[in-house]
Recover the amino acids of this structure.
């Protein structure tokens, strides 16, 4: 594992922030996700039984909207960071490693954008 | 030497090795992490269904309410509980706590028990909300 992380052509060699930034952001997103996840999961019991109008009304509350946006943003950032580490540890071919990491990046960006658009749709229309 | 019973000779690690709980938790943390990617995609799907209107919302409801949907949701709540608890364990390690051999094993057991309890608590709440 140590050999991989120092091998030439490793993702972080060209990454503008480097491995330390990655390591810190993984921890920071994890810590931010602790209260967000608790809030979300324990709200779920109430939300799951709501009908369409009630659920829309729930999301339209400013506090709920902001927390949901934070949850989506932090979750997909955390996913990007975590999946990158997994691919770097298990995929040894440089090309395939790059493809898998960038596929994850695109999925995460799409997740955030689609989630954001959906939330704005719910709130504005 | 050769007349001695084979038991005196060291066994190959392949023959005697059993994964300790700590090792199983380590790989489970990654596996639940990957599983939770699908959970995050599911959350986005729910929001999209809600944005599209009552029709797609109803379809989403039916899908998640079906038996496969409920199984996926149970697996999701467990994966989330586990990754949450073991993630906190990882954060304590990052701070330099809980690294001693005895402690690592104990916190591993705690993580398993608490994540099962959390899953049960969540479903207790869901069922209570559904009944009322």
């Amino acid at each position: 594992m140590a050999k991989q992380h120092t091998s030439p052509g490793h993702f972080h060699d060209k990454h503008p922030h480097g491995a330390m930034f990655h390591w810190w952001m993984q921890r920071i997103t994890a810590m931010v996700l602790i209260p967000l996840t608790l809030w979300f999961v324990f709200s779920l019991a109430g939300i799951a039984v709501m009908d369409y109008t009630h659920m829309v009304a729930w999301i339209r509350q400013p506090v709920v909207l902001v927390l949901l946006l934070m949850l989506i943003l932090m979750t997909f950032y955390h996913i990007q960071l975590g999946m990158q580490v997994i691919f770097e540890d298990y995929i040894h071919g440089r090309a395939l490693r790059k493809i898998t990491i960038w596929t994850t990046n695109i999925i995460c960006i799409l997740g955030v954008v689609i989630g954001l658009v959906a939330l704005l749709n719910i709130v504005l229309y | 030497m050769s007349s001695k019973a084979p038991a005196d000779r060291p066994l190959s690690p392949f023959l005697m090795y059993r994964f300790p709980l700590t090792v199983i938790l380590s790989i489970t943390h990654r596996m639940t992490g990957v599983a939770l990617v699908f959970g995050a995609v599911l959350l986005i799907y729910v929001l999209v269904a809600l944005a599209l209107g009552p029709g797609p919302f109803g379809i989403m409801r039916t899908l998640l309410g079906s038996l496969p949907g409920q199984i996926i949701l149970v697996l999701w709540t467990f994966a989330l509980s586990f990754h949450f608890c073991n993630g906190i364990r990882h954060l304590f390690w990052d701070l330099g706590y809980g690294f001693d051999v005895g402690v690592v094993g104990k916190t591993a057991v705690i993580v398993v028990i608490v994540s099962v309890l959390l899953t049960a608590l969540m479903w207790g709440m869901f069922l209570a909300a559904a009944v009322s």
Observations:
- Residues 93 and 108 of chain A are 22 Å apart (CA to CA).
